[in-house]
Amino acid sequence: MSPSAITPPTERETVSELTAQGIEHSLSKTAPSLLKQQAKDALLTDAAVETKSNGTKLARAPATLLPELDASLLTTTYNPNPRPVPLPGSPEEASQQVCTDHMIQAKWTVSQGWHAPALLPYGPLSLMPTCSVLHYATECFEGMKLYRGHDGHLRLFRPHLNCARMLMSTQRIALPSFPPSQLLHLITKLCATDGEKWLPRDRPGAFLYIRPTMIASDPALGVQQPKEALLFIILACFPSMDAPAGGMRLLASKDDMIRAWPGGFGYAKLGANYGPSLVAQGEARARGYHQILWLFGDECRVTEAGASNFFVVWRTREGQVQLVTAPLGAKIILDGVTRRSVLELARERLGKGGQGLEKVEVVERNFTMVEVEEAVVEGRLLEAFTAGTAFFISPIGHIHFRGKDLEVPMGGGEAGVYTALVKGWLKGIMWGTEQHEWGYVVEEEKR
């Protein structure tokens, strides 16, 4: 499958007709490519002429041409006061507050479309207290990483998927459209500018966290579609969080905790998905757990673990080894790039067995914590792990569910056999020990 082709959830019946129509209407107002096509149609066809009831023909003005987001218009202002790079494992790195020397910004207005983007020194944003994002959560973002490979190159991992998913998120939250390819060009430019210094070649295996974000900057209190928006991209220092001692400990959510629901927006990467989960997350941390395992419905359907997708490897009662994760159809989980990659690699490399391993059936279906508990009791649960950008592939060692402590096998080591295999394959692609089309090389700049 081409890495540039993301498939956002297509089961439109799970989104209300009103929401679907609203997204289309928002696109017609914010997507420059659509406006250009409308203008072209108006100029080249009879649509440019209106006929009155008395037969009089009147010329009709074509649709307004608004500028697209265009990375080629980028202006550059380098930081005159660059900051030092934190040492690996330092408190500065662990704080998740240290960003690189530069950021990228691009403004959009409903009357002028996209303004020229700018690369400029990292620093605070200026927003009015009445700004839409501060009152109505009109915000979406992406999570990506820039890797320093063991071959010396800088790489992104399947960045086309993140850029396409961000477009889908903007459509859901009434923010302006953009060409995903142009967002990728801007991300690449920032990585090329700061990558050499912040990911030095003598630190192979290191990474920076990339956060493209779009907010509604419209300074109006009215509950309405924003007329102004701001796109910005930053690079942050992040610690590795994928190997907690003894595996990740999960606390299954209670009946009064729901992260997402059918017809909602759990499939989009919106800030509104995360804020309401922080109370439960705080409770989990206070009780000695790393994340909440989010369940849905009376049947305790498994959805996500924290902000990551969740996988189990178990043996069916018929003896078949399966890799199982929740499906996308109900639109209550994120179409994670790491999730998608795990599924594709598992189908390709585990679907036929080999390497001393049994054939693994890869399954996307609804499953419940009751099924997981039965698999533990019957000795059929082989391992479990989470998959996402921040926590990468993180093995699960323990799940607390409705007063019961379920121990998850980890193969006697740091991770189960299948977890370790999948994690190793992905690391090879991300850090360049395996040459693969998913690894997107960034040509760094020297200044």
TrEMBL record:
It comes from the Eukaryota. GO terms for cellular component: mitochondrion. One of its GO terms (biological process) is L-leucine biosynthetic process. Its cofactor is pyridoxal 5'-phosphate. The modification N6-(pyridoxal phosphate)lysine is found at K269. It catalyses: L-leucine + 2-oxoglutarate = 4-methyl-2-oxopentanoate + L-glutamate; L-valine + 2-oxoglutarate = 3-methyl-2-oxobutanoate + L-glutamate; L-isoleucine + 2-oxoglutarate = (S)-3-methyl-2-oxopentanoate + L-glutamate. One of its GO terms (molecular function) is branched-chain-amino-acid transaminase activity. Its EC number is 2.6.1.42. Keywords: Amino-acid biosynthesis, Aminotransferase, Branched-chain amino acid biosynthesis, Pyridoxal phosphate, Transferase. SUPFAM superfamilies: D-aminoacid aminotransferase-like PLP-dependent enzymes (SSF56752). Belongs to the class-IV pyridoxal-phosphate-dependent aminotransferase family. PANTHER family: BRANCHED-CHAIN-AMINO-ACID AMINOTRANSFERASE, SUBGROUP IIII AMINOTRANSFERASE. This is Branched-chain-amino-acid aminotransferase.
